[in-house]
Amino acid sequence: MTFVVTETCIKCKLTDCVEVCPVDCFHEGPNFLVIDPEECIDCTLCEPECPVEAIYSEDELPADQQQFVALNAELSKEWPVITEMKDPPADADEWRDVKDKLKYLER
Known about the structure:
This protein is low in regular secondary structure and 107 residues long. The chain has helices at residues 67-76, 92-95; strands spanning 3-5, 26-28, 33-35, 55-57. It has one domain (3-86): Alpha-Beta Plaits (2-Layer Sandwich). The relative contact order is 0.31.
């Protein structure tokens, strides 16, 4: 089992989660973070750190977020590892409660 970053992270990209990860499995894209399922050790440390509740264990992933399992796996192979917290995007708060953000994902 692994943890998965879901749609809620798109355009919020808060990085509170990356510093607690003991195996550096987070990868950073232009406006989204993903977890490398090959590196994730299911430690559960990242999930409570996410201020927008965008991280789920694969077993508890909502049905409408299932496509993010494959998306995390795919993009973690393309994007660089992130290990340190960064300032959030200037407009992150405006995107916090927006639904259906997949169309805004930048690759």
